[in-house]
Amino acid sequence: MTAVNRVVVVGYGMAGARLARELRARARDLRIIVFGAERYPAYNRVLLSSVLAGKADEGDIALAEHASRVELRTGVAVTAIDPADRTVTTDDGTVTRYDALVLATGSRAWIPPVDGLDPAALPEGVAVFRTLEDCRRILRAAEGARRAVVLGGGLLGLEAARGLALRGLRVEVLHAMGHLMERQLDPGASRVLTRTLCGLGVSVRLNALTEAVLCDQGRVRAVRLAGGEVVEADLLVVACGVRPETALAEAAGLKVDRGVVVDDQLRTCDPAIYAIGDCAEHDGTVYGLVAPAWEQARVVADVITGADPRARYAGSRVVTRLKATGVDLAAMGDTQVEEDEEHEVLQFVDPTRGTYKKVIIRDDRLVGAILLGENATVGTVTQLFDRSAPVPVDRRALLFADLRGQAARTVESPVQIPDRTTICQCNSVTKSAITKSWLAGARSVEDVIKDTRATTGCGGCRDTVEGIVEWLAASDPQTTGSCA
Q1: Ramachandran region, residue 266 (left: φ > 0; alpha: ψ -120 to 50; beta: rest)
Q2: Deepest in the core among 280, 316, 324, 472, taking most CB within 10 A?
Q3: Residue 150 in contact with residue 160, Cβ under 8 Å?
Q4: What is the spatial distance between Cα 163 and Cα 49, in angstroms, rounded to a whole number?
Q5: pLDDT tens across 41-83, in order?
Q6: Is the Cα torsion angle 19, 24, 25, 26 positive or negative in sign?
Q7: Once rounded to an integer, what is the mean pLDDT over residues 281-309?
Q8: Which value, in Å, is the radius of gyration of the alpha carbons in the chain?
């Protein structure tokens, strides 16, 4: 492999910022140039719903990812790539040479082909929900609004809907499919989630195909559904999914399918160009989540710097968490499976309490789960899924925290978790790192988070981190600090 002295990163979102940090940690003398089209420093997109709900300020979601001695150019968009000359051109006319180029261009909000929705010029009172600027636009529109409609009952749509309800708006979700979050949930979980959301001030209409957005003097006033029904709205949030941002790659002649196609080292068809995060397609999959993006960043940093030239990305086991106040939901793996000769399926449903639990087991391994509502076992289930570890003999321990078989205790009890086990996949924080943080003086979950950055990615490991800190507090006779 030719020596790499200069790396250009296109994109300063969660993937690009992490990559810059990983590169600098491995190579002190490497020149790293990062271009970010947004004018803001890198921030945690996962927490935008908290800003929308008023539970966090913009400063609270800033990423502590800045690596020293990185040439960072925010508010500058790359407009062209020349693979032959190994250069990129930006919108201010600058041409920059690279030895290795990494595309971390992310994704863009998809706007459905609906009359009245022009992606180039959305009407006043209409916004997508993808970036910090989108969040600001929604909040400005919400100031004078009373009734909001959200198009899309996926992850982002539900988080936006709940955030707006917390600001006092009447909110209705219009979802074209037959149940909510159809990629992560089965119909039964959707029914319970719909009931829970209704109790939180968010009404849901399924099989609702939007035909047109109706405006008055350039401002949204209503949505018309197929069949003619009109739903009033003075704020419309479009959350119908995202599409990988691949225009640069395609124009440069790189192979593009659903995303920028990459191999196990995240290389494109040009060996000097890599792609990670939302824009990358690996083995036919575009993940669109932060944990896989950060795993990919580690592999690319190893390969480019030579820290581990044989590093490979083998795909990710994804856990999805819905971050909406009053809703506790985790989903992972294949959740649509029903009982058959190969699969065991355990379920518990209590709609009045907003509880839906389902785990799917094959060959004594957890291959899928939905935990909605009372999910005290989410730490156990997530660890089993991440590690592909054997499930308890008493399967009920996966659903109910007070029914613990020996195998469940083995997973849940921190004393039994090996020190090398990765607790926070997003930030590669091991149990050992959490223990060392405690021994160095961290005396609360928040102290440990600040020290290790555990939980600051997707947040799915929070329960496990809290359990380890509680165990450390109970095991250390010289401390009595709070673990909250």
Answers
A1: left
A2: 280
A3: yes
A4: 6
A5: 899 898 899 899 998 899 888 887 666 789 999 999 999 999 9
A6: positive
A7: 95
A8: 23
Strand partners, 350: 355
What mean pLDDT is predicted for residues 33-38? 96
Distance, in Å, from the CA atom of 399 to the CA atom of 143, rounded to the nearest integer, reads 42
Rounded to the nearest 10 degrees, the angle between the axes of helix 431-439 and helix 445-452 is 110
Structure tokens at 101: 């180029």
Q: Please state the three-class secondary structure of the chain as a single string.
A: CCCCCEEEEECCCHHHHHHHHHHHHHCCCCEEEEEECCCCCCECHHHHHHHHCCCCCHHHHECCCCCCCCEEEECCCEEEEECCCCEEEECCCCEEECCEEEECCCEEECCCCCECCCCCCCCECEEECCCHHHHHHHHHHHCCCCEEEEECCCHHHHHHHHHHHHCCCEEEEECCCCCCCCCCCCHHHHHHHHHHHHHCCEEEECCCCEEEEEEECCEEEEEEECCCCEEECCEEEECCCEEECCHHHHHCCCCECCCEEECCCCECCCCCEEECHHHEEECCECCCCHHHHHHHHHHHHHHHHCCCCCCCCCCCCCEEEEEECCEEEEEEECCCCCCCCCCEEEEEEEHHHCEEEEEEEECCEEEEEEEECCCCCHHHHHHHHHHCCECCCCHHHHCCCCCCCHHHHHHHCHHHCCCCCEEECCCCEEHHHHHHHHHCCCCCHHHHHHHHCCCCCCCCCHHHHHHHHHHHHHHCCCCCCCCC
Encoded tokens for 141: 């529109």
Contacts of 473 by beta carbon, 8 Å cutoff, 6+ apart: 443, 479, 480, 481, 483
Indicate the pairing of strand 219-225 with strand 230-232.
antiparallel
Q: What angle do CA 384, 389, 394 make, to 5 degrees?
A: 75
Kindly give the pairing relationship between strand 365-372 and strand 327-333. Answer: antiparallel
Asked if 192 and 355 count as a contact pair (C-beta separation under 8 A), the reply is yes
Pairing of strands 355-362, 365-372: antiparallel
